[in-house]
Amino acid sequence: MWTAFPGLHDQLMQVEQVIQANIKLRNKAIQNTLEALTINGGKLVRPAFLLLFATFGPQQDPPKFSKSAAAMEILHLATLIHDDVIDDSPLRRGVTTMHTHYGKRNAIYAGDYLFTVYFELINETARNAQDTHLNAISMRQILLGELDQMRFDFKTGMSVKDYLREIDGKTAALFQLSCEMGTRLSGASLTIQRRARRIGHDIGMAFQVLDDILDYTQSEATLAKPNGEDLRSETYSIPLLFAVQNYPELKTLLRQEMTPAHVAYLVHLVQTYGVADAKDLASRYTQKALAEIAQLPSGDAAEILKQITQALLIRTN
Amino acid sequence: MWTAFPGLHDQLMQVEQVIQANIKLRNKAIQNTLEALTINGGKLVRPAFLLLFATFGPQQDPPKFSKSAAAMEILHLATLIHDDVIDDSPLRRGVTTMHTHYGKRNAIYAGDYLFTVYFELINETARNAQDTHLNAISMRQILLGELDQMRFDFKTGMSVKDYLREIDGKTAALFQLSCEMGTRLSGASLTIQRRARRIGHDIGMAFQVLDDILDYTQSEATLAKPNGEDLRSETYSIPLLFAVQNYPELKTLLRQEMTPAHVAYLVHLVQTYGVADAKDLASRYTQKALAEIAQLPSGDAAEILKQITQALLIRTN
Fold first, then answer.
1. Which CATH number is A6-313 given?
2. Closest by Cβ to B104, choosing from A86, A112, A119
3. Which of A195, A209, B8, B29 could serve as A282's disulfide partner, Cβ 3.0–4.6 Å?
4. Bridge pairing between strands A95-96 and A91-92
5. What's the 3-state SS for B278-305?
6. Please, is B233 exposed, middle or buried when counting C-beta atoms within 10 Å of its C-beta (0-12, 13-18, 19+)?
7. Which CATH architecture has domain B6-311?
8. What is the ipTM of this complex?
9. Residue in chain A lying closest to B113 (CA)
10. Do A113 and B150 touch (CB under 8 A)?
11. How confident is the model over B154-199, as pLDDT tens digits?
C-alpha cells in the first residue's frame, strides 16, 4: 500500500520498529503472536495519517512522531484483540487470533497490556496536558463506542443514526485523534489542527462503512478472516440496515436460525439490497474529506493524503 | 472497616462520589452493574492508603487526593472485571459478576472503559511527567504480573520465587503505587516517598498472600464468592505451593478430575499442609511493613496505618 510513497514507507518502518520494541514480554508465546499480528498485513493506516499531518507544522521531531504514531497503532491493536475475543473470531489478518491460539485469558491481558504501552507512549510524547487529555478522552470515546454497540442486536434493532454514532466513537475517533495529534505535535496552526480533526473524522467514517461493506462482499481469502461474520454475531451494520429499509421482509428472515445456508442467503440479500446505498454513504464521507484536504497547504503531504483517501475507498480488504 | 476512623471515612465517601461521577454511560445496564460493584463491599483499601500517605507532605489538596485515590480503585476494578471474565467467576463482592449478567462482551469493554477513566483521572491529577510515568509503568507492571500468571498452571508447576514475582506485579504494584502517589501529590520528602513505596509493597504482598489463603479457608458466604476457585481454575497459589512441599503426594492428586468431592478433599489437604506456612509468610510481610510504618513521622496517619495494616492480616474476607 505504501510502496508508492517511499518517504512515508521509510517512516512507517520506523513506526513498526517502535511497536516491536515496545512489545517485549517474558511470556514469549504472547510476544510472538503480538509480533505476528503487527507484521502480517497491519496496514498502519492510522500511523500514516499521523505522520502525514505532522508535516504541516514547523516543529519537526521524527522520533517523537514515530512514537506517537506507534501509540495509535497499539491502541488499535488492543481494541482488535479484545474485539476478536468478544466475537470469537478465528482469524485476523490471516493469522490465527490470539485467543484461538492462547485462550481468552492471554488475549484479554495482552490487550490490556497494550493499553498500558499506549498510555506510556503518549506520556513520553505529549507536549502538554492538553495532548494527554485529548488522548484520554478519545480513548474513552472509542470504548464508549464499543459499549454502545452492544445495545443494538437483531432483537432491539438500530437506526442509521445509531449506527453513525456508534462508528463515530469506535472507529472515527481514532482516525480523528491520529490526524489531530500529527498537527499538534508539529505545532501546526489551530486552523490546520481543526481541519485535520474533521478530515480524520470523515476518513474514519468512510473507512468503517467500507469495512462493514467488505464483510458482505469479499471472500474469506481476500479479507484474511471469515466473511458474513456480522450476521453470525447478530451485529447490525449499515449494509444490513439499508437492506432492511429497501427490503423489509428481511427483518423476518433475520429471526430464523443462522445455518450456513441461511447465512449465505442473507449475505446475498444484503449484497442485492444494501450494499449500493452503503457505498454511496462511504463515498459521501470520502468526498467531504477530499474537499477539506484540498484546503490544506499544497505539497507532497496533501497530495499523498488525497491519493490514500481515494485508495481507501476502493480497497478490497 | 473504616468507621473507627471518621476523618478517613469521610474522605473515602468523597472518593466514592468521584468514582460514581466517573462511571456515566449511555448503557445504563452496565452503569448500574459498575455502581453495584463499587457500592457493595468495595473496601477502598488502595484509596485509603493513598489518602493516609497524602498527609505526610506540606501540599494539601483534598479534591486532588480524592481523584487520584479514585483512580487507584478504578484501575483495580478494571482488572477485577477482566479477571472475572477470565476465571468465569459467577460472584464478586456478593454481586453477580458483570460477564455473568451482561456477557463477556460488556464485561471486557467495561473493564477497558475503566482503564480510560483511570488514564484520564491520572492526567487530571498528576503534577508532572514523572507522576504520569510512574502510573504508566506501574499499570504495565500490573498487567505483566497478570500475563506471567498464565505461564504457571498445574502442568508446568511454579516455584515460591515465581509466585512472589507474580504477586509483586499483579497486587503489590498497585498498593505500592497508591502509597507512593499519596506522598508525591502532597510533596513529601524523597525519604518518605521511598518509605511509602516499600510499605505499600509489603502490605500488598501480605494482602495477596492472605487473599490466596482465604480462598482455601473461608466459606462462600464470608467471601461473597465461591471458594476453592484457585483449584478449579488450576491456579497455583502459595497455600497450595507450601502444601505440595510439605505433602508431595498432593502433586499426583492435582492431576485427577476436579469433581466437587475431589476439590473438597484437596481444599482439606491444603488447609492441613499449606495454610500455616502461608500465614507465616503473610505475617513476615506485615511485620516488615509495620517496622517501616514505625519510622514515619508520628501522628494520626501513622497510627491509623499501623492499625489497618494489622487489621488486614486478620481479616476474614
1. 1.10.600.10
2. A86
3. A209
4. antiparallel
5. HHHHHHHHHHHHHHHHCCCCCCHHHHHH
6. middle
7. Orthogonal Bundle (1.10)
8. 0.80
9. A143
10. no
11. 556 688 898 998 899 889 999 999 999 999 999 999 999 999 999 9
